[in-house]
Structures are given as structure tokens and as C-alpha cells.
Amino acid sequence: MTQRVFRCGIVGYGPAFNMGKYHGEVISKTAGLELAAVCDKDESRLEAARKDFPTVKIFSNIESMLENGHIDLVVIVTPHDTHAELALKALRAGKHVIVEKPMCITVNDANAMIDAAREKQLMLTVFHCRRLDGDFLAIKRIIEGGVVGRVFHVEAFGGSYENPGKWWRSDKTISGGAMYDWGAHFTDWILNIVPERVVGVNGYFHKLVWNDVTNEDQVEATIIFESGAVADLQLSNIAIVGKPKWRILGSKGGLAVDQSGRLTLYVYSQGYRFETNVPYKGSDWSPYYTNIVEHLLLGKELLVKPEEARRVIAIMEAAERSSKSGTTERVFL
């Protein structure tokens, strides 16, 4: 019996991090998927796609690709503010959709995307690939194994003291703000580390130094869970003093990951404190696409459900509202 092959089209082939090329390479190596088309507004990027994938069809706009590309699945690799519009066009044209993180900028856009996918009975998912990072998988395995007991406090940090640079990721109108880049990854990680309902969010956003860009200089969100557990996420371009990437406390122990990636486990037993470094495997994001095929062909549960990605957007939105109001945003997510 011949397995069905889903023909994929990539929208966005920008040079930043070469993510369009990355998606194309993984699609090409995944049984059940075929890279059939690439779309970009920039002719130089289309020429790069032609060199990387000589057999694919090339389009300068998504409308032509949707009509003439003979594709089943669209992968959106474009600036954040375009995700919702492009995803809705693809869904309404009857195509399955993968969107690069973050899903979009607003919860209203996330709702519209989810509603369109449900109406058309199509797959919609978000490329929260860093759920497959080696350090995160090791952290999750330790926590789920009960080694550190019940997690009640999580701290996460990313940043340094440097100008973020003048490009679209530093433009709040396009990017959504400083929280929407690494913050999307960290928020998704936190929600998997503490799999409980969120009941409140506090936000603290600062604009103090880099006035040549419109993103905030530092953003911080405190996430309050129903059990009373608290997570604090801080992302900064003005942090001259750094912190560990992770500091996680549980009722029987804790975890820390420093900025070099070293994972240390701490446990307390019978009056003694034990400390050990935990090795872990490297990151491999390719199983994300294997899961896509298994979901489409066999009905396997999606690795990243759209409702989970919407939850990330809701928390980031709530953090900004809290920062403006100076009060806790009461949410039930």
C-alpha cells in the first residue's frame, strides 16, 4: 500500500536564521511529505530557494501558490504580524497550516485561526520546536519522574546588555514586542513544566536605553498558577548582570541550567543535600514533522495543539496589559 504524500509550500524564505531553508530540508527528509513550492516577495530570496531546491515551484505571492501550487500544507515562516493573515488565507483555501512561533500577536487572531481550522476540519499547529531541545527534555523528564517533588517556583532568564539591532524583530509593530521572540519559547516551556491552570499574570515592561528601536528594552512576566506555583520570566537587552537560564524549585529538590547549558540537579534526602550534573542529548527538531505526518495519516495527537499556542499568546498579552495597568491580570487559562 502506497502512503499518501502531502505536498508542502513554504511562505517566507528570508535570510534570517535560514528558517525557510531549514523547514524545506526537514520536509524533504520526512517520509510522507514533499516540498513542492516556495513563496516570497523578494526575488533574491526566490533565487536562493531555486538554488537550494531546484525542482520546487516558485511564487511571488501566496494567492498564486494556493491556487496553482497543488499543495496540501502551508508552512508560514514570515514576520510575526503576518502570521494570522497568511494562515487564514491558507485555511480558507483548504490547506493544512504550520505557523512559525509565535502563533500570532493577539488572542483575537489566534481565535480566528483556530475557528477557521475547525470550520474547514484542517490541521493548524505552531512550530514550537524547542519543546524538543535537549535541556528542556531532560528537565521535563526529571520533573515528571518526581525527583524534585512538586514544582512551586520557576525562574527563567534570557538576555544581556546590548542593542538589539535595527531589524523587524526590534520593531514592536511587526514583532509584537520584546516578549514575542524568546518569550514565546520560554512561556511554552513554562506551561509544560507547570501543567496547571494559570489564574494571574503580572507584567513589568521597561523602555530606558535603546530608543533607536521600538521594542521594549526589558520585559518580565510573573505567571501565577492555580496551585500557588509561580513562574518568573525575564528577557532583557539591558541586563548587565546575568542569571541562570533556569532555576526551578520543587518540594524535594531543584534544577538549574546555566547560560552555558550545564544542567545541575539538587536533591535533599534524610538531612543531606546532594548535587550532580545531568548530561543530556542534543536537540533534534525533526520529530516535529514526523508527528505532523502521523497526525494527518493516523490521527495521532499533535505535538503542539493550536489551543496550547493560543495560551502562550494570551499570557504574553496579559503581561503587557498588567504592565500598563500596574495590577495583576486575572485570567483563567
Summing up helix and strand content along with how strands pair, one would put the structural category as alpha/beta
**Gross morphology:** globular
**Can you count the beta strands?**
15
CATH class placement of the largest domain: Alpha Beta
How many whole angstroms does the radius of gyration measure? 21 Å
Following the backbone from N to C, one meets helices and strands in this order, namely EHEHEHEHEHEHEHHEEEEEEEHHE
The CATH architecture of the largest domain comes to: 2-Layer Sandwich
Strand order of the largest sheet: 14-13-12-11-7-10-9-8-15
- Largest sheet at a glance? 9 strands, mixed
Distance between the termini: 43 Å
Q: In terms of per-residue confidence, which ranges show pLDDT below 50 for 5 or more consecutive residues?
A: none
Overall mean pLDDT score? 97
As for the number of domains, it is 2
Q: Strand-residue fraction?
A: 25-35%
**Which fold name fills CATH's third level, the topology of the largest domain?**
Dihydrodipicolinate Reductase, domain 2
Helix content: 25-40%
The CATH superfamily of the largest domain appears as Dihydrodipicolinate Reductase, domain 2
Per DSSP, the total helix count is 10
